[in-house]
Structures are given as C-alpha cells and as structure tokens.
Amino acid sequence: MNGSLTDVAGLAVGHFTDTRRPTGCTVVLCGADGVVCGVDQRGGAPGTRETDLLKPGNTVERVHAVLLTGGSAFGLDAASGVMCWLEERGHGVAVGPVRVPIVPAAVLFDLWVGDPRIRPDAAAGQAACAAASTAAPAQGSVGAGAGATVGKLYGIGRAMRGGIGNASLRVGDITVAALVAANPSGDVHGDDGRPIAGARTADGRALVDATRALLAGDGPAAAMAAMQGSATTIGIVATDARLDKAQANRLASLAHHGLSRAVSPLTQHDGDTLFALATGDSGLDGDLSLLGAMAADCVARAIRNAVLHATGLADPPLPALGDLSDT
C-alpha cells in the first residue's frame, strides 16, 4: 500500500482542477485548532507565502491550512480564497475582533501549457476547500499537479507530464505521509536510480537520462538557461507525532532527502519547498531520526506516484509515463 496524506488523522485534502487549461491547486485543511507547521525551502526560484512566520523564533505556532498551487506567483491568489473559506467557519488565530486563518502556500510554474492568463485564483482556493475530504486524494494530473511537467532540461518540447502524488508509512504507533506536486527541471528516477519519466530523445520515443548526459558534457546550455524559474517540486509531509515548530522545521529539512532520491538533476531553476505538519494525535513524541527517514521515503514514493498516475496531453504533446512505455 502506498497510502496517502489523509492516513494522518485530522487532515483533509481537496483538489481544484481548472477545466480551461491544465492548472489547479490543492489544499490541506488542518482543523479549527490548526496544527504545528515547519518549512524548508531549498530551491533557487521559490514562490511562497507566509513562510517567514514558520521560523522557530516567530510567534505563530500553528497553521489552519497549507496550499500547493500552479500558476507561478499569480497562483498565490488562491490562498486568499482558502483564508476566506476558513474565516467563514471561524477558523484562525484570534487577533482583536477577528480570527486570522494562517495559510502558508507554495507555487509551481505551469504556464507553459494553454493560456497563461488562466491560473488559480481566490475562487479556485475556495473550490479546493469545498472539495476537501479525508478520503485518499486523487493522484496524477489533478489539482496542483494538473499542469506539472518533468524533464525540461532540453526544453518543454522534450518534457513529459508531471503530477501530484501521495505516500504514507507507519512504524509502530506513528504515521508519516507525504503529498507532493512534481514539476522538476530534472528527471524522476525509480527505486533503482534509473529515470522513469523526464527529458526525451529528439525523436520523443525514449528517455535521455539527463544527469548522465550532463556529466558526459552534453549539457543543453541554451535550454537550461531558458528554464530559469520555470520548474519546482512542492509538497507537504505530515505526522501524528508530537513536534514543536523547531522540530517541524527539521522534519521538513530531512524530508528533502527524498526529493534528491527521486529527482535528478536538481537545479538552481527549481524552487523546491516542503512543509511539515505535526498533528500530535498519536500522543507520542517523535524521534526526528526515525521521522526523517520515514518522511524521505514517503516524499520519494509520492514523487514517483505523481508521474505513475499522470495522463498524457495532446496539445501541446506531452506524454505521460504510460504513453512512453507503449511506444
């Protein structure tokens, strides 16, 4: 069983997928009281909101939702819709006469496909909240992964479809899970270290293995320069262990090891960002060494699930993993 983020009790996931072009957003709702949250942002081209407040020295300890969205920086508008939806239900930090919902967010670049003027907005964020459920969320070309692509080092014309994926793991009485939208410049690799989706050969029928090509001196310099700021893998890891905010930040950091297992090469053009949520519902203190190993495993499997469940696109022609294997 691969599992899903909702295997961590108390969390609900909702997708909004735009029907006008491949884009969308995905929200994780954390309940009226919120949950402890940390973040680790490592990519060179990030697009984020409300991440500074997650630093251990800052006041806010809990968040009420986390948003992953397409649309590049424009897509951050969807977080306003999530805030409105939560406010209407009385969720948020009490500040004077109001409650202010805390909604960190991260974006990926998916403006390659279709009309780039169409991107997630406040209405999209509200729709994702309305769709939220504790059932296992859909994977592949939906929500924040609807317009995701992988393997762009030789240009978008030789890329493949990315997506969004889940995974979970239980050790003893503690669960860790991940939800990741995979949109990297590099290839997605399987357990054996070989690429399963990514940059294709000039005839489009096979994979190049971008890392091997780069190390052999076959670097597509012009295409790589054109990719700047146009990729990014974003995601959320969650656990039912008890963590404080400093520990949640460390868990987010350790989870990035899973990204490096499943994506290669990682480039300065990716704005990779991972959030970590800790509900504490197990009643057990978390051991970060164990939780970090679990989170890294879940992140790697979630990325692979994202491309395994993706569906191909005819216009522009962006095959999915299943399409390539059939050629």
Defining traits:
5-stranded mixed sheet, globular, L-amino peptidase D-ALA esterase/amidase, 327 residues
Overall morphology: globular
- The fold-level CATH name is L-amino peptidase D-ALA esterase/amidase
Percentage of residues in strands: 15-25%
| Average pLDDT level | 93
Number of helices: 7
The tally of structural domains comes to: 1
Main sheet record: 6 strands, mixed
How are the strands of the biggest sheet laid out side by side?
5-3-18-16-13-12
* Gyration radius from CA atoms, angstroms: 18 Å
Could you please describe the fold and organization of this structure?
This protein is α+β, with helices and mostly antiparallel strands and 327 residues long. The chain has a single domain (8-325), classed as L-amino peptidase D-ALA esterase/amidase, CATH 3.60.70. Helices cover 23% and strands 24% of the residues. The chain is built from seven helices and 18 strands. Strands 5-3-18-16-13-12 form a six-stranded mixed sheet. Strands 1-2-6-9-4 form a five-stranded mixed sheet. The chain has a three-stranded antiparallel sheet with strand order 15-14-17. The two termini are 29 Å apart. The model has no long low-confidence stretch (mean pLDDT 93).
List the helices and strands and how they pair.
Elements: E1 12-17, E2 24-29, E3 35-41, E4 48-49, E5 62-63, E6 65-69, H1 78-88, E7 93-95, E8 98-100, E9 105-107, H2 122-130, E10 149-150, E11 160-161, E12 163-171, E13 174-182, E14 187-189, E15 195-197, H3 210-215, H4 221-226, E16 234-239, H5 245-262, E17 263-264, E18 273-278, H6 288-308, H7 321-325
Parallel strand pairs: 6-9, 16-18
Antiparallel strand pairs: 1-2, 2-6, 3-5, 3-18, 4-9, 7-8, 10-11, 12-13, 13-16, 14-15, 14-17
Helix pairs in contact: 1-2, 5-6
